[in-house]
Amino acid sequence: MAIRQNTFGQKNGQDITRYTLTNDKGFQVSCLDYGCIITEILTPDQNGLLENVVLGFDTWEEYGSNPHYFGAVVGRFAGRIQEGAFTIEGTDYQLARNSNGQHLHGGPGGFHSVVWKAEAIETENESIIEFTHFSPDGEEGFPGNLTMTVRYVVKHDENQLAISYFAKSDKTTLLNITNHSYFNLSGDFKRTILDHQLTIPSNHYAELNGDMLPTGNLILAEEDRLFDFRNGSTLREGVDSQHPQIKLVGGGYDHPFLLDKEAQPVIELKDLESGRGLRVETTEPAVVLYTANHIGGPYSFKSVAAQNQLGLCLETQGMPDSVHHPHFPSAILRAQETFESRTVYKFT
After folding, report:
1. Residue 182, annotated as binding a ligand
2. Can you spell out the DSSP letters for 212-261?
3. Count of domains for the chain
4. Is residue 117 pLDDT above 80, yes or no?
5. Residue 64, Cβ neighbours under 10 Å: how many?
6. Domain that holds residue 29
C-alpha cells in the first residue's frame, strides 16, 4: 500500500498536488488538493483488467475552468437555491446567482475552485488523504466562519473509497455537500452509460420546474415507471423517452431521489459487459442522479471525445433548495453544531 504525490500544476503561483492511493489489489484512486477533485479510479473488470471508471483529465490546464465540476467536492450548497436567496433566524442572505438566475453548487468561488490543505496519512489498514478548508463568514454570501474537513480513505484489502465530511460553523448556516464524480463502469469510457443498470432504493423523486428547481412535489416511483429504479433498470429507455421531466433537463436525468432509510439504502450500478459493479452506501437523505446531459464539448477525456451520457453522477446529498421546502430534510447547520456525513463507494 502506498501514497504517491506529485506536482500537477499551479494556480496563481501555488502548486497543485496530485495524490495517488494504491491498495494491495492494485485498486487506485488519484485526487487533487484543488477542489478535492478525483481525477481517476482504477478498478478491475471481470477478467482483472484495471481501467479508469471516472471522467477526468490528464493535465491541470484542462481542469482550469471545469464547468461541469468533474470529480470535485461541491459546496457550501450542492444543487440549486431559488434566486440565491434565503432567510435563516430572521436574517436575509443573498448568494451568487451563477446558473440562470439561481445559485448552483456553492457559487463560482465554491469548494470546487479552492486549493485545500492536504495531509497524507497511513495506518495499518488504510491510506487517507485529509483535506481541510476554512470558509470565512460571507464567502459567496453564506453566513458563518466554517471549517470543513473531507477525508478520502482507501482500505488496503478492499476495492472501495470512503468519503467522510465534517464541518462546524460559528453562525447558523446552510450546508449541503457532495462529490461530483462522473462514473462509467465500461472502463476507459469505451461506451456510454445508457446500458448501465441502476438500482436506487427510493419511493419518491422530486419534480422539477423550468428553472431546474424542485417544485416541492414528491412523486411516487410506482406512479412513474421511468423514475422507478427500485428493482433496477437501464437508463436508455428513460433517456430516449419523451417524458416531460426528462425533456425538461436536456434529455436525461438530473433529479433528486429521496432514499428509503428504512431499507438501509444501497445504490447499485452495474455494467454487465465489463462485469464491474458499484455499490454506494450513504448517510445522506437523498441522491441526485445526473446523466451528463450537457457535457458534450470540444474536449476529450484522454483520447475519448466528450459526449453527453458518457458518465453519470450519483450525488449523495440533501435535497436541492430545501430551505424553501419545509417538508424536505433540512440542510441548516446550527452554530457550533458538528456536521458529519459519510458515503462509501464499493467496486465489485
Report:
1. yes
2. S-EEEEEEEGGG-GGG--TT-EESHHHHTS--HHHHHTTSS-EEEEE--G
3. 1
4. yes
5. 11
6. 2-347
